[in-house]
Structure prediction request, 291 residues.
Amino acid sequence: MSSSAQSWVDTTEYPFEHKYLKLNAGQMHYIDQGEGQTILFVHGTPTWSFLYRDFIKELSSQYRCVAIDHLGFGLSDKPNNFIGTPQAHAHNLSEFIRKMDLKDLTLVVHDFGGPIGLAAAIENSYRIKNIVLLNTWLWGTKDNKDAIKIDNLINSRLGKFLYLRMNISPKLLLKKGFYNKRKLTRKKHQQYIYPFPTRQSRLSLLNLAKSLVGSSDWYDEKWLELDSLENKKWCIVWGTKDSFITPDYLKRWKGRFPEAQVHELECGHFIQEEKTREVINTIGMFIKKSN
Prediction:
């Protein structure tokens, strides 16, 4: 990790040894703490493994906790030539899982980490034991009115300006995702803003945002391929005050996996920050029961 990166990382909140794995597309930063059955944490946008810091601190006393930063996010490389679609991120994650030879995995996914992580899980289904969903989706978005509105903005000149010049994703949209705004202190908020200091470093944010609708057909394709994960144990932990990935999304997941354990919490999109203790306890209990 470069000295400039070290200068902004809050080592009190995030006191882990930094590890890197060379992938075909670039260096991926990850945390690997503890021993035992492996939990793999997958973030979405505009977050990074910092989102799971308290999960790692707590659960690494019983489990091996691995948390990645997607390329273009957190402390991973931000290569200019990386396309940054969820398909490309899923390919990277699959490569990571294989190179690390991770097995008997409990996969924890959130936001865009859902399509990314589940696509990698489909490719490596024999390595997956349990799946934990936190406010995410995996089906077509091109008929969703809210998604279309966002897509129209993102693909406009204004959208490009807001994302690349104003850094709107971590500065404003992240904050909007909180139901209890007090849970996002200024100090914590900075840890989500600092990874994107330049226009070039924000391309990863714009590329994923464009994929909300741009990758719609791919989401549908992966939704059909979820059959390969039906025999896994599923747990859904859901923030019911999420204004974008709403309880309607939860209904769809319940319909697809009626045997899943479901826990609903009164909070916004960033359930890891708003209901930290509850989510950690739920994941810990779920893994214990599944063994």
User: Anything to note?
Assistant: DSSP finds 13 helices and eight strands in the chain. The chain has one domain: 3-290.
